[in-house]
Design goal:
Layout lengths: L2 H14 L2 H5 L3 E6 L2 E7 L13 H16 L6 E10 L8 E11 L3 E9 L5 E11 L10
Antiparallel strand pairs: 1-2, 2-4, 3-6, 4-5, 5-6
């Protein structure tokens, strides 16, 4: 398996087993080792009392994107911390894309930046997250 094929298999495996991400309707846009982009359509159920997408759901999009990117090497990794900057609101009907980029991959920890944009290319949120690898594989053994 090439590194790209492995990364794709890992992301699909995670999404198939992630009810929270699936409940947000997350769609895979692109995958490469250490890099993942996911898409989310903002629905009425995702808006708050100000009629904009709830910040917690924007963070959930970023968190899933970050976690998927960190697991593209078939090594289980968990987000250990993250900081978010909300820059602009999203409204019902908008299509958002979160892109995670690996900045550093150490022996046990890694660092990622996630950018959430709308269809116009405007940046809505920036997230910097750290992940810790747990020392086990993600995919089941191949026969």
């Amino acid at each position: 398996m090439t590194p790209e094929q492995l990364a794709t298999a890992c992301v699909r495996h995670m999404l198939d087993r992630d009810p929270a991400s699936r409940s947000l309707g997350l769609e895979i846009v692109s995958v490469a080792p250490g890099h993942v982009a996911l898409r989310m359509h903002v629905t009425t159920d995702m808006t708050n009392g100000f009629e904009v997408c709830h910040g917690g759901l924007l963070f959930a999009l970023a968190d899933s994107t970050l976690a998927f990117a960190a697991n593209t090497y078939d090594e289980v990794a968990m987000v250990s911390s993250a900081d978010v900057e909300f820059l602009r609101s999203a409204t019902r009907g908008e299509v958002l894309t979160a892109s995670a980029v690996e900045r550093n991959r150490g022996k046990r920890n890694s660092l990622y930046d996630v950018t959430i944009t709308n269809a116009a290319g405007e940046t809505l949120a920036l997230v910097r997250g750290r992940c810790a690898r747990l020392g086990r594989t993600l995919l089941p053994p191949r026969q």
